[in-house]
Specification:
Blueprint (H helix, E strand, L loop, with lengths): L4 H32 L30
């Protein structure tokens, strides 16, 4: 089955537009990283200073004196 030339051109145009829309945010993100010099993937994680340790309850009767 032959595809009409107009249909083929419309499919190619739609595919190109879809790829452009898909890649535009990624390209803008890398452009922003290049301009600002930010490199979030190289940041070290900071430990929170005021964290309390989690204590698990070991008493099976849930505090009741029965």
């Amino acid at each position: 089955m032959k595809i009409e030339q107009a249909t083929k051109e419309r499919i190619v145009r739609n595919v190109a537009l879809s790829l452009f829309i898909y890649l535009l945010p990624i390209a803008l993100m890398f452009l922003t990283f290049t301009i600002t010099g930010q490199r979030p993937w190289e940041k070290k994680t900071q430990k929170a200073a005021n964290t309390k340790p989690v204590t698990n309850k070991t008493n099976l009767n849930n505090g009741s004196n029965d």
